[in-house]
């Protein structure tokens, strides 16, 4: 089969890779119908950390082609969505809603879903069947649910966005934008998008942002406080993962407020005394997207949300390298790869 | 009046200080009947940070002697408890239960309650009247409520201790021990006290600890996981404030669990990537003791809890220096100063 392989930073190729096979009785093999390039794929692309001929991709939708002998919840021919972490959905951690840290987790990034096919470990726990036949628009949204929507949703839930709350959102990538959509759906009263890009501001407003703050760092914090009677936001979504963005998120949050951080952390160091003084709740990490998938699929298939609009560039799998380049150069917010 | 002044690290004296006066119409003056030496007083005592003739003390119970013209909730003669932060109890932060970060907060440590009298700013918001006449035992417990009990209680609430939960407690000082009492009252199923001191282990058990772990650091984390089917605690109380204790608390907590940290942070640096991977909720800081005072006073005055037993050394104010020394040398867990 054909699949994306990153040979080195900046060097993305589409190559022949061996077809996946059932390795465990709990596995399924899916024919991937669409995958995407993730903001987190840009970290190795830009040289953060080592990368040497790694299969790429962890977001996917597709059709079940083969199942292991122990698989019961999905059948051949099912159209399915899964998250970027394969999880059994039965251990105590999964049952508490943290499937991204399942006791038996397998990171889908280690398998690589930017490919024609993919092995899905723990298929019963990982995959959720889509009812009915999705439209093209719904299909794009289902793909978004696989990671960026689910991650933005978790960030909003972790930040305790809800009725009466003012939510600040740091980061205007696909996750930050869909965090806005999530906060809006969860009933937030006011949503402050921190963004300085006109096109993303526009999408932010479409998703429910009520205010735009262009300032960053201390100036951004000051502006959020100004908009909230000096108190700061009740809930802040952090969707970048840098030192500046984390401090901006914590600083923009009022004492007793909540920060949901989902930007993959790079070189972030938090000073204990500052955190102590801040008196905010922090919850973040790899989003347990699986927790939200049934609800998100329902919202998408009933056209209540349309997160698929974050895909502003669609390319065939063979042109994956151009997709990475476009996102790296910020010519695209989120790239969909059709297969 | 007589009051404690720290001239320099290790140099604590009881001296004549000016009697406090009403400075704002919202002030009250109380006659302090008992104060204590706090674990956090030991930081400057041991030379962490600068200290130059600072009035000391922030825990207190006493009798209202004088009130400003705007004070309505307490009257002269009332027996009152307050927390270590004066707060208006009306701003949005206070109303959300984070009085320790009140928009108009005054740190009582800057006033110094290890003294015969103290000015209490924002008296209406800060002070809570004790109904009836407390016994000697109740009096000690009310003094504990002023800080160590309220702080341990907040840590347990921040860690979401409750029915069905396994709670780990890092730190066996007065706050950690009373965190155990709080977790027990909040219905925790299992409480793991991390302590290697026999006398404190005994008090931990008296307060409701079901297991004792003597190991620290990675070995302590491994032991907590061993006791919890490999998952880690649902809820962890951190009541020390060092790098080792914070990492021990985070490491002992299962993904999706909660850490309540109340040890005043010293030289703690948290790695963002480690925190991201941990996927635990962190909430800490100066405890909003005021939130819990009415409930704690009720529990104490009806003899449902007896936190006052943490005071294992009682000295007259004039011997405050010996109280600091005893705590510094770990000859005492918590020192009460009678006035």
What does the model show?
- The structure is a homodimer of 339-residue chains.
- Chain A has 339 residues and is of the alpha/beta class.
- Chain A is built from twelve helices and 19 strands.
- Chain A is globular, with a radius of gyration of 19 Å.
- The interface between A and B is large, with 42 and 42 residues.
Rg of chain A is: 19 Å
Number of helical elements of chain A:
12
Query: Percent helix among the residues of chain A?
Result: 25-40%
Share of residues in strands of chain A? 25-35%
| Poorly predicted runs of 5 or more residues of chain A | none
Question: Which class best fits the helix and strand makeup of chain A?
Answer: alpha/beta
User: What does the average pLDDT of chain A come to?
Assistant: 97
What's the end-to-end separation of chain A, in Å? 11 Å
Which descriptor suits the 3D outline of chain A? globular
Summarize the largest interface: chains and residue counts: A-B, 42 and 42 residues
How can the largest sheet of chain A be summarized?
Answer: 7 strands, mixed
Secondary structure: number of strands of chain A: 19
Characterize the quaternary organization of these chains.
homodimer
């Amino acid at each position: 089969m054909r699949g994306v392989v990153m040979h080195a930073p900046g060097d993305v190729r589409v190559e022949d890779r061996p077809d996946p096979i059932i390795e465990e009785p709990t596995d399924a093999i899916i024919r991937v119908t669409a995958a995407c390039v993730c903001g987190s794929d840009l970290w190795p692309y830009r040289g953060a950390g080592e990368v040497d001929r790694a299969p790429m991709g962890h977001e996917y939708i597709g059709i079940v082609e083969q199942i292991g002998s122990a698989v019961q919840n999905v059948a051949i021919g099912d159209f399915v969505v899964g998250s970027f972490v394969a999880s059994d959905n039965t251990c105590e951690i999964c049952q508490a809603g943290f499937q991204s840290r399942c006791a038996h987790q397998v990171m889908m990034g280690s398998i690589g879903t930017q490919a024609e096919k993919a092995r899905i470990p723990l298929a019963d726990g990982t995959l959720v069947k889509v009812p009915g036949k999705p439209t093209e628009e719904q299909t794009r949204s289902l793909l978004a649910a696989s990671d960026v929507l689910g991650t933005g949703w978790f960030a909003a839930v972790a930040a305790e966005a809800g009725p009466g709350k003012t939510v600040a959102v740091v980061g205007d990538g696909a996750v930050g934008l869909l965090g806005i959509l999530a906060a809006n759906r969860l009933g937030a009263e006011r949503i402050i998008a921190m963004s300085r890009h006109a096109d993303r501001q526009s999408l932010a407003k479409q998703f429910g942002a009520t205010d735009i703050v262009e300032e960053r760092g201390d100036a951004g914090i000051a502006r959020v406080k100004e908009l909230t009677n000096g108190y700061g936001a009740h809930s802040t979504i952090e969707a970048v993962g840098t030192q500046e963005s984390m401090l901006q998120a914590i600083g923009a949050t009022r004492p007793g407020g909540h920060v949901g951080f989902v930007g993959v952390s790079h070189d972030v160091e938090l000073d204990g005394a500052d955190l102590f003084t801040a008196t905010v709740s922090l919850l973040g990490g790899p989003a347990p997207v699986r927790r939200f998938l049934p609800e998100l699929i329902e919202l998408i298939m009933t056209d209540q949300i349309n997160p698929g609009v974050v895909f502003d560039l669609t390319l065939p799998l063979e042109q994956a390298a151009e997709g990475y380049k476009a996102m790296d150069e910020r010519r695209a917010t989120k790239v969909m790869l059709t297969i």
